[in-house]
Design a protein that fits this description.
By secondary structure, the protein is α/β, with parallel strands linked by helices. The chain has one domain. The chain is about 50% helix and about 10% strand. The strands form two sheets. It has a four-stranded mixed sheet. The longest helix is centred in the last third of the chain and has 28 residues. The two termini are about 30 Å apart.
C-alpha cells in the first residue's frame, strides 16, 4: 500500500503503556472465539455482550512508552485518513455528512464505553463511543497465526472496523441488534453474519476508492482477500476444534468474507452491499 507521504489522520488516540483489566466485546474480529465458545457451551452470546466487566479507569504512570510517531503508528494514521477521505466523499454524494470516528491504539487492556478492551479480543468497534480499538500486536498475530501478512491486510482490518462505524451512522447496527433481541440461536447468528459481511463489503468499497487514489500496489488486494479468508468462521472452527458448526457462525465463512470484500472492491457501488436483502450470501 502506498501510504508514505499521504495525509495522516488526527483522530488517533494513543493509550499504549496504560494498563487495565477485564474484557471488551464489540464488532471486532477477535470476538469470534468468545462468541463461539458461548454457543458451543450452550450459552447465549448476547449475555456475554451484556456482562462485560467495566472496571475502573486505569491510573498511574505508564509502564512503558511508545514513540508517538513510530512507523506502524504512521501507517495506522494514514490508513485511517484514507477511510475518512473515502467515506466523507461517499456520504457527500448521498447528501449526508460523515462523522469521523476515533481510533484508539492500546496495549494489553483499555476501557471503552462497551466495557474493558483486551488484546485477546482483538480489534473491535464500540458504537456507544464511536471508537475503533486495536492493540497493534494483532497485526503480528495476523501475520504469524492467521498467515495473512502485509500492510494492506492490516489496512483491511481497519477498514472492516470502520465499516461497522458506517453501519452505526446509517442505523443498520441498531436495527440488527433490535431484531436480535427478538430472536434466538441460528437466526440471531445469521443476522450477525450479514452485519459482518456488509462490513467486509464496505472494506472492499474503501479499497475500490483507494485504488482510484493510486494507493493500491500489486498484490495488495490479494493480501486483503487472504486476510478475509483467514478469519472465516469455518476456518477458525476447524483450526480450534477440528470441525465446523454452521449454525454457530457469527462472521461468515472464509469464502463469503472474501467474496463480499471482492464485490465491494469490484463494483465500487454502495448499493451493492445489501447483505440483508441478499437471498444467498
Amino acid at each position: 500500500m502506498r501510504w508514505r507521504g499521504e495525509r495522516q489522520s488526527t483522530n488517533v488516540e494513543d493509550r499504549r503503556g496504560i494498563g487495565g483489566r477485564g474484557i471488551a466485546v464489540g464488532g471486532g474480529l477477535g470476538t469470534i472465539v468468545l462468541l463461539l465458545l458461548a454457543l458451543l457451551l450452550g450459552g447465549d452470546p448476547r449475555q456475554l455482550l451484556e456482562q462485560v466487566e467495566t472496571g475502573p479507569a486505569p491510573t498511574g504512570q505508564a509502564t512503558r512508552q511508545q514513540p508517538a510517531q513510530d512507523e506502524q503508528t504512521q501507517f495506522v494514521r494514514a490508513a485511517l485518513a484514507s477511510t475518512e477521505d473515502v467515506w466523507s466523499e461517499i456520504f457527500r454524494q448521498n447528501g449526508e455528512r460523515y462523522r469521523e470516528p476515533t481510533l484508539v491504539i492500546f496495549d494489553g487492556r483499555t476501557p471503552s464505553a462497551c466495557g474493558m478492551g483486551s488484546a485477546a479480543v482483538g480489534p473491535f468497534y464500540c458504537p456507544a463511543d464511536q471508537k475503533v480499538y486495536i492493540d497493534l500486536s494483532f497485526f503480528r498475530d495476523l501475520e504469524q497465526r492467521f498467515r495473512a501478512p502485509g500492510d494492506f491486510a492490516q489496512a483491511y482490518v481497519i477498514a472492516h472496523e470502520i465499516g461497522h462505524h458506517v453501519q452505526n451512522l446509517l442505523g443498520t447496527m441498531d436495527k440488527v441488534h433490535s431484531l436480535q433481541q427478538r430472536t434466538r440461536g441460528p437466526q440471531a447468528n445469521q443476522l450477525s453474519v450479514r452485519l459482518e459481511l456488509q462490513a467486509d463489503f464496505y472494506a472492499g468499497l474503501w479499497a475500490h476508492y483507494a485504488s482510484r487514489r493510486s494507493l493500491i500496489e500489486p498484490g495488495d488486494i490479494e493480501e486483503a482477500l487472504r486476510a478475509a479468508s483467514a478469519i472465516g468462521d469455518d476456518r477458525l472452527q476447524r483450526q480450534s476444534q477440528g470441525y465446523v458448526v454452521p449454525d454457530s457462525f457469527t462472521h461468515g465463512t472464509s469464502e463469503q468474507r472474501a467474496r463480499w470484500f471482492r464485490r465491494g472492491y469490484e463494483t465500487g457501488d454502495v448499493r451493492q452491499g445489501d447483505t440483508f436483502g441478499a437471498r444467498s450470501l
